[in-house]
Specification:
The chain is 45% helix and 13% strand. It has 14 helices and twelve strands.
Length: 339
């Protein structure tokens, strides 16, 4: 015979309505009562019908996750599984599931987000990137659905709940680290310039050079638009300059892996001939030969806080937007050397 909510209520010494409120995680129910009811539920083997509960509460108990690319492309970058690990940890604690965007183009992703919101498929959305003039973020700002962003919004950041690193200062400290090793000819291989993180890291790079009296050399700044799918040739041209760089800061560890491969093809050794450093501290970075110096940006914590921000907004829409800055740390490994 199936255990009912009335059976749980009777054994816990509370009303069926109280059990329902515990299942819904109602904040008005005391922690002591919640613990008691949940212990009885476990003892009796009672499993709530969450679909029925969600219909009554008009909630999906689901968070939408929007990536900059399709899921297939995104998961090629170790950043996304790690940030999702943080999100899922926090979502699981609140009994929320995740709905991943699958659109392959910006238009498809925008359409999917509109369908998520209007079809009430999700209670809130986490945007895993921040771009200039992004129609997805603009729509989320207008439609009223709770959302948070991993990354500083380019426009009116104080009006949006987001979590980020101090990317300008991180890049600045990274360049200063190389300057401290004696490098004066430092290149920057960045990402797409419509992403805010790319702009911030480039700004930090320029600030460090300026504060140490090192001229900014246009040819040392290589971004995704300049490479246009010709990354190998771009690195060859960089290293063929009359005064080639002695160190390279890359947008992230993934870019560093590629650059190291191109340098090997040119018979340029790391770190004997050139130092290189990345961002994100992916698990594989410490296993490279040589191990890659990098900046650990606390990816898991970025996901954890992003989920907390949107869940807080779902619970109480009157909560004002919050901005969270997650700490980072430079990890020195074998890919950089003193001149």
């Amino acid at each position: 015979m199936a255990v009912t909510i009335k059976d749980v209520a009777k054994q816990a010494g509370v009303s069926p309505a109280t059990v329902s409120r515990v299942i819904a995680d109602n904040p008005r129910i005391s922690s002591k009562t919640k613990q008691k009811v949940r212990e009885v539920m476990e003892e009796l083997g009672y499993f709530p019908n969450f679909q029925a509960r969600n219909l009554v509460a008009k909630k999906s108990q689901t968070l939408g996750i929007v990536m900059e690319n399709s899921a297939t492309l995104a998961f090629q970058n170790p950043f996304f599984p790690e940030v999702l690990r943080g999100i899922s940890t926090r979502a699981h604690g609140s009994q929320y599931g995740l709905y991943l965007s699958t659109g392959a183009t910006q238009e498809e992703i925008h359409r999917e987000v509109v369908e998520m919101a209007q079809g009430k498929r999700v209670d809130g959305i986490i945007l895993l990137y921040s771009k200039i003039g992004d129609p997805v973020m603009e729509y989320l700002g207008q439609c009223g659905l709770p959302f948070s962003v991993v990354g500083r919004p380019y426009k009116d950041p104080e009006t949006v709940s987001y979590v980020d690193n101090d990317n300008i200062n991180n890049a600045k400290e990274t360049v200063e680290y190389l300057i401290g090793l004696g490098h004066r000819h430092i290149a920057f291989v960045g990402g797409a310039t419509d992403f805010v993180v790319s702009l911030d890291r480039m700004e930090g790079y320029r600030q460090a050079l300026d504060q140490h009296g090192i001229p900014f050399v246009e040819a040392y700044a290589v971004n995704q638009e300049l490479m246009q799918g010709k990354e190998r040739e771009a690195i060859r041209q960089l290293m063929a300059l009359d005064v080639p760089p002695t160190a390279i800061v890359t947008h992230d560890d993934m870019v560093a892996y590629e650059v190291i491969g191109y340098l090997e093809d040119l018979q340029i050794r790391v770190p004997e001939d050139i130092s290189i450093i990345g961002f994100n501290n992916h698990a594989i970075s410490k296993h490279l030969k040589p191990p890659l110096s990098t900046v650990d940006i606390s990816i898991y914590e970025l996901g954890l806080h992003a989920a907390e921000l949107v869940l807080e907004k779902i619970t109480d829409e009157s909560v004002p937007p919050k901005q969270v800055v997650v700490s980072s740390r430079l990890i020195e490994r074998g890919s950089c050397r003193r001149l």
